[in-house]
Amino acid sequence: MTAFAHPIGAHAHGDPVAYAREGGFPIVQTFLGDPQAWKGHAVDHPGGAAGLKADAEASGVGLYVHAPYVINVATTNNRVRIPSRQMLARQMKLATEVGARGLIVHGGHVGAKDDPAVGFDNWRKAIDGLDITVPLLIENTAGGANAMARHLDRIARLWDAISAADGFGDVGFCLDTCHAHAAGLEASEVVDAVRAITGRIDLVHLNDSRDAFGSGADRHAPLGEGSCDPDALVRIVREAGAPVILETPGDASAHSSQIGWLTGRL
Q1: How far apart are CA 207 and CA 115, in angstroms?
Q2: Contact indicator for 42, 32 with CB cutoff of 8 Å
Q3: Mean pLDDT throughout 29-48?
Q4: Which residues contact 5 (CB under 8 A, 6 or more apart)?
């Protein structure tokens, strides 16, 4: 069997370059600031953004940036949507400054009584108004009755809406395996189904799930220790044919061990 040709890494705790060195990862994912906060987002690294970019390049480490969880550009609530668009623009600027390979953002949601069509169009407007200087990767989500990117039909409607945006060519997809499992998406079909909708999978967030299939719960577990079928996780990685980031519990050593678990099966 042909060796897996794409890089595999993990979400970093602390300095992303040091984390990559410790675990031997060719790629890492990081937050630029508190993912649960609206303010204070900056590059906390010696030399700032330029220092992080230089250190990553010198170490041969590819960086991915995960946008804060609070961002929700789909919502009909102006007090959330407008700051979300502003923060997404700020994160895009920072991701560009550090030389990131992509900026990952969750699909968001609208209120239970809202028309989801408004949320899809709000996404179109957000992309229209965003200067996309590194790939923007929209991630599928685990729960929420009125989520934009939980179920396949919603992902299809989202992609149809944003295809009219000026920056659409720079928008990609991040497939999270725990989220897909929690959303009730069949592992044997999800890669082909997503690719049929989006035409691409740019990154895989490879996570096992602490909770049952279709639970709607976003709680990650170490690979092989959760409720996902281990063979299905490996098959998703192989079929997606994209870089892989683990967001599972554990330190760099634990992530390295889990990557060994994966590569031994690939």
Answers
A1: 31
A2: yes
A3: 95
A4: 241
pLDDT of residue 260: 97
What is the model's pTM? 0.97
The pairing of beta strand 136-139 with beta strand 171-176: parallel
The full 3-state SS of the chain, as one line of letters, equals CCCCCCCEEEECCCCHHHHHHHHCCCEEEECCCCCCCCCCCCCCCCCHHHHHHHHHHHHCCEEEEECCCCCCCCCCCHHHHHHHHHHHHHHHHHHHHCCCCEEEEECCECCCCCCHHHHHHHHHHHHHCCCCCCCEEEECCCCCCCECCCCHHHHHHHHHHHCCCCCHHHEEEEEEHHHHHHHCCCHHHHHHHHHHHHCCCCEEEECEECCCCCCCCCCEECCCCCCCCHHHHHHHHHHHCCCEEECCCCCHHHHHHHHHHHHHHC
Burial of 169 (0-12, 13-18, 19+ CB in 10 A): exposed
The third-level CATH classification (topology) of the domain covering 8-265 is TIM Barrel (3.20.20)
98 pLDDT higher than 60 = yes
The string of pLDDT tens digits covering residues 105-115 is: 999 999 999 99
